[in-house]
Amino acid sequence: MMGLMASEETGTVTTRTETPVPARDTAGRDVSSPRAWMTRLLVVGIVLSALNLRPAITSLGALLEEVRDGLGMSGSVAGLLTSVPPLCFAVFGATAPRLARRFGLGAVVCAGMTAITAGLLIRPFAGSTPGFLAASALALMGIAVSNVLMPVIVKRWFPDRVGSMTGLYSMALAAGTAVAAAVAVPLAHALGGWQQGLAIWAALAGAAILPWLPLVRKREEGARAGAPEGAAPQAPSPAAQHAPLRIARSRTAWALAVFFGLQATGAYITMGWMPQIFRDAGVPAGTAGVLLAVTMVMGVPLAFVIPRVAARLPHQGPIVLTLGACGLAGYAGLYLAPASGAWAWALLLGVSNCAFPLALTMVGMRARSGAGVAQLSAFAQSTGYLISIPGPLLVGVLYQRSGGWGVPLALMAGLMVPQMIVGVLAGRDRTVEDEAAR
Q: Is 200 exposed, middle or buried (0-12, 13-18, 19+ CB in 10 A)?
């Protein structure tokens, strides 16, 4: 598989270069087309980065009660804390294409992993709620830019393997999400407190920095040698290849943005509040964390399978409806029998949460070019995360005001219906370039 990817990578870059003559630096070293090892390093970087895109959130969800007690948070403030991820993703994700055009995709992702590492190290020991929120925002800023750029990286370097590569990093993302949820509570107990249980994830983020460093250096060497931008491991910027699309004119782009926003709303409510739902129903804290992990781990195999299946279908609507039906059944179960059927509801919501890799796959399929994917990814994710901001906060307020989970669960189930509708619209076989031109 790696050898195949290497040949695809070389072919992709060569076709974008005016001449196949390799660029060399002053010492005569080739600084142009990427070697097979560079492609392998890129795959490793994608996987390690994906592993770090959710532990900052799910480890906090499993330890939210301990963090609330330690920092003296109210239910409303805790709801605000669960709304910080989509807010940061919306604000900082919109800057990702511009940053990538200026500094290169690898450099921006490398900086993102560095921000995650720093934020995860600082936030448990900030000593106050504002400090905790600020450090969380730093980590989430790094996650935000990487969220947007991952579909772009896949489309640019693996254009003939969009489904399989999207499945690979979606599977890694789901694995990181699940493991963090499962072991956050045991780690906190073993390490002596919730602070250490949250800080330990900085080590994984630090490891994700390393694969991107040679890619950043390779780009810099190529620039100093005067190599064409397309000849460096960093693919040429979208702006250099295509005029910007009027993306807001595309109905598919809007449908995909709303679908992304509604699925993100459900996902962040689940990650932030599901352990508390189970704990309030009498489930032990450790078991509640494992149940969240079960929900997240369902995405490991399905995140690899669903993008591959979706990429072969002309219309992704049937997958959208299937995932939505699982979500409705899971919310109904949480209302009727949260403790006795906990494992079944965790499994159903885990299937429903696979709308995320499906949305990422549709981002890659609804645009023809790398430039189109970059704009569509930024638009859909930034707009979508803006839509998702009120959800977790509103759930916290409703929970505190109503004194139970009936009203919040009704809200969560109600949002699933429009998610299914716009998902069907986003899954139609068309491209944003055609719609924006019309």
A: buried
The tokens for 54 are 């959710």
> How many helices (DSSP H) and strands (DSSP E) are in the chain?
23, 0
| Cβ 123 vs Cβ 139: under 8 Å | yes
Closest CA relative to residue 371, chosen from 159, 91, 88, 145:
159
* For range 85-93, the mean pLDDT: 80
Q: Give per-residue pLDDT as tens, 14-24.
A: 333 333 334 44
Structural Rg of the chain based on CA atoms: 21
115: left (phi over 0), alpha (psi -120 to 50) or beta: alpha
Q: Give the Cα separation of 255 and 330 in Å (integer).
A: 24
Say if residues 22 and 33 touch (Cβ distance below 8 Å): yes
Q: Among residues 171, 205, 141, 179, which one has the least CA distance to residue 62?
A: 179
- Residue 221 structure tokens: 């060497």
Closest-CA residue to 173 (of 48, 294, 2, 268): 48
pLDDT in tens, 113-138: 999 999 999 998 887 888 888 898 89
Opening angle at CA 181, ends 179 and 183, nearest 5: 65
In angstroms, rounded to a whole number, what is the distance separating the alpha carbons of residues 403 and 84? Answer: 23
pLDDT surpassing 60 at residue 28? no
* Rounded distance between C-alpha atoms, residue 374 and residue 412, angstroms: 30
Query: Which tokens hold the place of 432?
Result: 């944003």
Give the pLDDT band of residue 217 (cuts 50, 70, 90).
low
Read off the pLDDT band of 236 (50, 70, 90).
Answer: very low
What lies within 8 Å, CB to CB, of 261 at 6+ separation is 383, 384, 385, 386, 387, 388
Average pLDDT over the chain, rounded to an integer:
80
Name which residue leads in pLDDT, 155 or 250: 250
Residue 306 and residue 260: Cα distance in Å, rounded? 16
